[in-house]
Design a protein that fits this description.
Blueprint (H helix, E strand, L loop, with lengths): L2 E2 L2 E17 L2 E15 L2 E7 L12 H16 L3 E2 L16 H19 L3 H4 L7 E3 L1 E4 L5 H13 L4 E5 L6 H10 L5 E4 L9 H5 L9 E2 L8 H9 L4 E3 L6 H10 L4 E4 L1 H4 L2 H14 L3 E3 L6 H10 L23 E2 L9 E3 L9 E2 L1 H7 E8 L2
Parallel strand pairs: 7-8, 8-9, 9-10, 10-11, 11-12, 12-13
Antiparallel strand pairs: 1-5, 2-3, 2-17, 3-4, 6-15, 14-16
Helix pairs in contact: 1-2, 8-10
Length: about 375
């Protein structure tokens, strides 16, 4: 449906994590989060910019995304009439990169349109093939293997269907071996966040014996060719994450045999329009996808839930309960996982949860409001 972007408000939140989250490129204890609120006709839609505090996962980071939104995206968006939320994907199309900033704005437009239509976001994007989303968890690098095993046990007892552990050189083969020895039958995968090179192929091949669902993004964040060479050497499927930003990238990777699975992150690919295009390309080639996470607040988490209800999201994703990350989330109710290890879709308009504005304002450290002329 047609609507005009009348006002955009940026909210900068700072929220401590319940427990530190460590990957191959560092440890996070506190999240800086940008929410984008887009308004039309007195109704607001909300999106989340999912970049990290530093430009390690990709080139984006919180301060930079705020500037890109303020100086480039918002001036282009204000006063703009959109035939539908899908048109929001064209805002900022002339920029190189900055898909997470663009994706936060685009997601807010989808949420706004869903609210204006009075339908849940999952229905607006064409989802709802399944009413319960299968859930996995991502567990960061711990201080000891014993701590890791304890965390895995806790998550399995909570019902999660799949365990993902982060790996890096020195925290890989022996760690995975210990996990598989303790939990011989669980769905298990490893995520390297680009910590290896093709010279490490034999070390990565040693993981084949542990029956992993996949190894996620073992090589460089912008590489497809070396992943194709590595996949030829491995029995374990490679899942690509960081280097898949567009449908074209996905089709290149599939054509070269660089992966057998793709992780779709809403922010990384720039929003729902591109996420759906990648999803459709993978579906046509028989490549399963799943929803990755970026330590989102409840807003980004709710968007992920909607996306994960599309048909080809057949593997448990990193969409888990709010309480794994936050003592208190900014949405009501908090996202919860059933004893079956699933999240049930909600039927309320938009992303399906209410904003806890009192708490949101208490963790907000900066905001800017922009109005159409």
């Amino acid at each position: 449906m047609e609507f005009q972007i009348e006002q955009i408000r940026l909210h900068w939140l700072e929220m401590p994590l319940v427990h530190f989250f460590e990957t191959s490129f560092g440890r996070t204890t506190r999240r800086r989060i940008i929410l984008v609120e887009v308004s039309s006709g007195g109704v607001s839609g909300w999106g989340e910019v999912t970049c990290g505090e530093h430009p390690h996962y990709n080139e984006e980071w919180t301060e930079g995304a705020w500037l890109i939104l303020r100086e480039y995206l918002i001036p282009e968006a204000l006063g703009r009439k959109l035939d539908s939320a899908a048109d929001a994907a064209r805002i900022g199309a002339s920029l190189r990169g900055h898909r997470m900033a663009r994706g936060g704005l685009e997601a807010a437009c989808w949420d706004l349109e869903a609210r204006l239509r009075g339908v849940p976001l999952w229905k607006a994007i064409g989802g709802g093939v399944r009413r319960e989303i299968p859930c996995g968890v991502s567990i960061g690098i711990q201080n000891t293997v014993e701590e890791l095993l304890g965390k895995i046990r806790t998550e399995l007892e909570a019902g999660y269907q799949r365990i993902k552990i982060k790996i890096k050189p020195g925290w890989d083969v022996n760690t995975v071996e210990a996990v598989r020895r303790e939990f011989p039958d669980i769905l298990l995968m490893a995520d390297a966040n680009s910590a290896y090179t093709l010279a490490d192929a034999e070390r990565l091949k040693a993981l084949d014996e542990f029956r992993l669902m996949m190894i996620e993004q073992p090589l460089a964040h912008d590489d497809i060719m070396d992943h194709a060479r590595l996949q030829e050497k491995l029995k374990t499927p490679i899942c690509l994450d960081e280097c898949i930003r567009t449908r074209h990238h996905a089709e290149q990777a599939i054509g070269l045999g660089a992966c057998r699975i793709i992780n779709i992150k809403l922010g990384r690919v720039g929003g729902f329009a591109e996420a759906k295009a990648i999803h459709d390309a993978c579906l046509s080639h028989g490549i399963p996808v799943w929803c990755g996470g970026m330590l989102e607040s409840g807003v980004g988490r709710a968007h992920n839930i909607a996306m994960a209800s599309l048909a080809n999201f057949t593997l448990p994703g990193d969409v888990s309960a709010s309480k794994r990350y936050w003592t208190r989330d900014i949405i009501q109710p908090a996202v919860e996982v059933t004893p079956r290890g699933t999240i049930v879709l909600r039927d309320e308009p938009g992303f399906g949860y209410a904003l806890d504005m009192e708490f949101l304002e208490s963790v907000r450290v900066r905001q800017e409001i922009f109005c159409a002329p």
